[in-house]
Amino acid sequence: MTYAATHPNDVAGLVLLDSMSPHQFTLVPSYPGQYEMIRRLHGILTPLSRLGFGPLLADAPVDLQGVAAARQHAIQTSSANYDTARDEVSLYRQSLEQAQALTSLDNTPWSSSRPPSR
Q1: Would you say residue 11 lies in a domain?
Q2: Which residues constitute the domain of residue 41?
Q3: Which residue of 41, 54, 56, 61 is most buried, as measured by CB atoms within 10 A?
């Protein structure tokens, strides 16, 4: 939503899949506590991965087999992946605050179970 508002000429429409509400921290009473748990967990995943526990931290993918499954599991449990996830989680509040500031996407079509307020 933020990208669409910032670059309207580059966006033909939006489909929000598995998205968070811009009001996630206030709309879902349990979310602030869940967020703190997620943030702390992501803070320890990278060190655990670097100590060799990465392969134990995630299940093998059930939809892949053989070499593809091994490669996906190696990427998923790498310290670089955990660093990326940690960094993404650390920006949730900032991202959601930016999304809250959006009051309109003008005439950009989008799909969602709940439209943004105008």
Answers
A1: no
A2: 23-101
A3: 54
- Specify the number of domains making up the chain: 1
Distance separating alpha carbons of residues 80 and 71, to the nearest angstrom: 14
CA distance 105 to 88: 24
Q: Among 91, 86, 88, which residue's Cα sits nearest to residue 46?
A: 86
In a domain, 48, yes or no: yes
Q: Which residues of 15-49 are buried (b: 16+ CB within 10 A; e: fewer)?
A: eeeeeeebebbeeeeebeeebeeeeeebeebbeeb
pTM: 0.67
Structure tokens given for 29: 């009473």
